[in-house]
Each structure stands twice: as C-alpha cells, then as structure tokens.
Amino acid sequence: MTNADAAEPTGQAGPEAGATAETEAERPEARLERAVRAAEQALIEYEIAVETFRVEVENFARLHHQKLGPMYARLEELDAQIAEAKAAVTGDPEDVRVAHELRARVMPMPDVSELFNDWIDSDGLSPEAAAMLNDQPVRAPQRVRPGDEARKLYRDLVRQAHPDLAQDDKERERREEFMVRVNGAYARGDEALLRELAEEWAAGPVPPEQQPSESEELYARLEWLARRKELLSVIAKDLEEGPIGSMLRMAPDDPDRLLEQIAEQLLAQVGEREAELASFLQGPEA
To answer: Which of 37-51, 93-107, 113-127 has the lowest mean pLDDT?
Structure first.
C-alpha cells in the first residue's frame, strides 16, 4: 500500500513533465506564428482603409467630372467671351492676346492621355468602359462614399476572403478573382450584390486549416508583410496628397456635400461672369 501510494505521484508526474517540456519546446515558434497572424490581420485592416479611400477618391473624381464639368466649361466660355468683348472695346493688343489665349483654352486639342482619361483607372479599364465593352449597362457610382451597410459588408468580406490568407497558389487565385468582384460591387455601392457575394463566400469551399510553419518561413512571412505595408503607405500618401484626396480631406465626414458646395460656388461664379459679360455688351448704350 505504501509503495503504491508512493508510485502514484511518480506516475502522474511523468506525463505532466513531458507535456510541460513539449510546451516549452514549442513556445518560441508558437509566439512567432501568433506574431505572423497578428501582422496579417493588421495588414488586411490597413489594406481595407487604403482601398476604401481609393474608391472614394475615384468616385469623387468621376462625380466631380460628371456633375461639375459642365459648370467649369461654362466658366471657361464666359471668360473667353468677356475677354473678347473687352478686346473689341479697347482694341489693345494685350487684350486681344489674352482673348485669343482664353479662347484657345475653351477648345484645346486633346492628346491621347486626355482622350482615354475617363476610360482608365487604377485597376485598368474603368467600370463604365468595362461595362460597355461587355454589353452591360453603365453604372456610375451614386455617391462618393458607399453607404454604411456597403462599407460593413465590404470590410467583412475582405477580412474573410483576402488573398493574403491563402495557403497555396490555387486558393490565392480563387480569392483574387473573388475580390475583384467584391471591389467592383463596393465601388458602385451595390449593397445587394455585396450580400450575394457574402452568401457565396459562406457557401464556398472552406480553406484548409493552416499547418504549423517552420521558423524560417514565419520570419520570411513577417518580412513580406512589412514590405507590403511600406508599399501601401506609399500608395496611401499619393492618394492623400493628390488633388482629389486633398479635396476629400476638407470634408472627411460628408464628401458628397462637398460636391454640392463646390457646385454652389461655381454657380455663383457663373452668375458673376454673366453679369460682367452683360456689362461689356451693354456698355456702349450706357
């Protein structure tokens, strides 16, 4: 009885000691693997932020062109007419030169890049161009910033289906193709399509469980994530410092309202130019 009692603790200590030793041996690699997973998630969140801002920049540029382009054209035409009216009254060679210069700006000869400007965006063909080439109806963005529900659906989909979470080339390709569709739906603010894509992803093949990685592979993964973050930082900086990004920073909470304010300012300028032109045309009678 005494021998059995003495042997029992020894029998229990053996497996526990082995498990403890095994845990101690795995702990450094496990910590490294957790660091890689945390870095992956952080990178994905950062990519989400950059991509959502890129969509807003491109949508703002398109809507700015669609809604305000005619007003800018009207202002240029009025400036040319005012200069021409002034030159006709004064006959001053400098006024004549300015009139010719402003008239040339109204009808410039476009170069190749300007001809294709509205057909190309950061992903290649713009959604409008791609739709026309595929005999699909053109669907321009409705707003600069997609609605809250579209933003939530998009973020959830990116977190689930991001290509960087793939464990092999085939899975990465599947995710990349899926994300092209997700990005297109988000750019248009298409909540219904985003919901369909969420259901499609949920019903699709479940990616295989990640196998433990070797320490060298984990370190290499961390280095790649760091390089990717640096690249995204450059892209984000270019977006923020560009003309459209700078305008968006003026109204981070309601960029669509910013378009309305610019339109109101342009309408006021049009009114001022029209009054100035009228004063030149009616000058001799006065």
So the answer is: 113-127
Q: What type of residue is 235?
A: I
- pLDDT one-digit tens code per residue, 226-244: 888 888 888 888 888 888 8
- Residue (of 144, 159, 140) closest to 47 by Cα position: 159
- Could you identify the residue written with the tokens 């300007």? 114
How big is the chain by its Cα radius of gyration, in Å? Answer: 31
CA quadruple 191, 195, 196, 199: dihedral, nearest 10: 170
d(CA 232, CA 50): 7
Q: CA-CA distance, 26 to 214, in Å (whole number)?
A: 11
Q: What is the mean pLDDT of residues 193-221?
A: 73
Residue type, 21: A
Measured CA to CA in angstroms, residue 124 lies from 117, 141, 143, 201 at distances of 11, 17, 21, 25
CB burial of residue 155 (10 Å; 0-12, 13-18, 19+): middle
